[in-house]
Amino acid sequence: MLTTILALLSSSGVGSLIGWVGGFLNRKVDLQAKTEEYKYNLAIRDKDLEQTKAEIAGQVAVADKQIEVAAYGAMAESYKEQSNLVGNLKGKWAWVDALSKLIRPIVTIIFLIVSLSLSVYIVIKAYNSGIEFDKEDWKELLEYVIHWVFFQSGVVIGWWFANRPSGRS
Asked: In sequence order, which residues have a C-beta less than 8 Å from that of residue 71 and are 6 or more positions away?
């Protein structure tokens, strides 16, 4: 019996089978190692991608600030250039300087008069319409008119005097 077992174990079939199993296990270990290597490389690439995104976001933020600084610099330069022109016109062109200095106040006053006139017209029309208003309704209407005038004043001040460089927000 022992000779039969030794004969079987020493046969080429068993040797081939052992070689095949060993090769299979070796290949399985290699594939697992490759899988782990690919996972590791993928994780590194993900980290690289995150870092690149952060760097790009920082560069975009810096570029936005540089654009904003350049816009304000250009605006300051234009104000400086404009101030060099204002008051330097003499002779027959002096009226242009006067008009340039008066246009904002004149337009603002006209705008205020028109806005107040329309507000007064609304209140008078409401009073003369014969509609019964109680004290609370009159209060609400007058508050609306006052808010409207303040809103219009804010529009005028914002339009004439606010800094308005164009750019992204």
From this structure: 165, 166, 167
Cβ–Cβ < 8 Å for 108, 152:
no
User: Whole-prediction pTM value?
Assistant: 0.41
Report DSSP state, residue 92.
G
- How far, in Å, CA of 102 to CA of 78, rounded? 20
Burial (CB < 10 A; 0-12, 13-18, 19+), residue 16, is exposed
What is the token pair recorded at 151?
């809103």
What's the pLDDT tens digit per position in 108-159? 888 888 888 888 888 888 888 887 888 998 898 888 888 888 888 888 888 7
> DSSP label at 129?
T
Query: Burial level of 66, CB count in 10 A (0-12/13-18/19+)?
Result: exposed
CA 122 – CA 141 distance, rounded (Å): 9
What backbone torsions phi and psi does residue 134 show, to the nearest 5 degrees? -90, 180
Kindly report the CA angle at 68 between 63 and 71, in degrees rounded to 5?
A: 125
Domain locations in the chain as residue ranges: 14-85, 92-162
Residue 161: CB atoms within 10 A of its CB come to 9
